[in-house]
Each structure stands twice: as C-alpha cells, then as structure tokens.
Design goal:
- This protein has about 180 residues and is mostly helical.
- It has one domain.
- The protein has helices spanning about 10-25, 25-35, 40-50, 55-65, 65-70, 75-90, 100-115, 120-130, 135-140, 160-175.
C-alpha cells in the first residue's frame, strides 16, 4: 500500500510548481558559493518540467539526488539548505510530501542568510503560503501531520525537529484552517 505522503501523480504535479518556487527563491545562496555548479538550478527546472508533464515520475526518481550531493560540496549553512531545498523540490515527483521539505529548507536557508533578521523564517513561510495555488493547497491538505506517518519524509526523523519541523508545522497549521484559504494573516 502506498504511503499517504505520496499523493497522486496529478497532485504531485500540482505541488511541484510550488516546491520549485520555494527553492528558486533561495538558490542564489548556493550559487554565490558555487557558481559553476548547476545541479540545484537543474533540479528546480526538472521539478517545473515534471509539473508541466514533460518528465515522468520514474525519470525523476532516478535523477533526484544530484542537488542533494551538491549540498555536500559547499560550506555555508545557507548554501547547504538552499541546495537541499532544490533536492526536495525535485523529489516531489517521487513523493508529494517532499514539497514541504522544499519549503522548510528554503525557509531555513533564508533565515541562515539573514541572521540579524530573526523574523526572516516567518517572512519566508508567509511568502510561501501567499504563493501557493488553491490546487496545491488542497493537495497538501491531504498529507498526514508531521510525525504522524511512518513511511516518507514526514515520518519521525529529520523533519520532526528544529527549524525544519517548526516550518512544516506552521505550513500545515495554516493549511488546516479552512477560514484562511489564501493569506497567512
């Protein structure tokens, strides 16, 4: 039986655009440190191509680790988080819950890049929620709560602690509010 974190292929295509948007906002943090390494930007482009139906899930499952490997080749924590955001966006083809990983890593990257602005993570999450389509919102509402399912990125583990957890929980809390379909105010 498939994990509830997978989402249907149609839903994954819907959330892939949003995940790519989140990752693209911070990819310059990676590129500032590794300008010749195109793997994170390529991962974002592939997420968009998957969303448009130009790539299959099987193609992307085989290729999804490139941006993650790029994260190991940079030093600044913001650049690492930006590369991981791109990797998570590309992984949406495999499992829809990776969209929340892309958003969480993007928020982390934004916060790390502006340590003198403690509200930066919240500002990034606000932007993400404001730029989520109604269709992506509906698909992401179908995901189990963080830590509530044992198979997939939302399982207990990496995303269930620290800034990644608080970012995903903030997004999921907003999605759970039917009275706030658009803004996070």
């Amino acid at each position: 039986m498939a994990s509830p974190q997978t989402l249907s292929e149609t839903e994954r295509r819907l959330v892939a655009t949003w995940a790519a948007d989140c990752a693209e906002r911070v990819v310059a943090l990676f590129e500032a440190e590794a300008p010749a390494d195109a793997r994170p930007r390529d991962a974002i482009a592939r997420a968009r191509a998957f969303a448009r139906g130009e790539l299959t899930a099987a193609e992307e499952i085989r290729r999804r680790f490139g941006a993650g490997r790029a994260a190991r080749e940079v030093n600044s924590p913001a650049a690492v988080a930006a590369a991981r955001s791109a990797a998570q966006a590309a992984a949406v083809a495999h499992m829809g819950a990776h969209a929340l990983g892309a958003a969480a890593y993007a928020a982390k990257a934004a916060g790390l890049a502006a340590p003198d602005r403690p509200q930066m993570v919240d500002d990034e999450i606000h932007w993400q929620l404001e730029h989520m389509s109604a269709e992506a919102r509906a698909a992401l509402r179908r995901l189990p709560p963080l830590g509530g399912n044992s198979a997939g990125p939302l399982a207990p583990g990496l995303f269930t602690s620290g800034i990644l957890a608080s970012s995903i929980r903030a997004i999921q809390a907003h999605l759970a509010r039917p009275d706030q379909p658009g803004s996070c105010s």
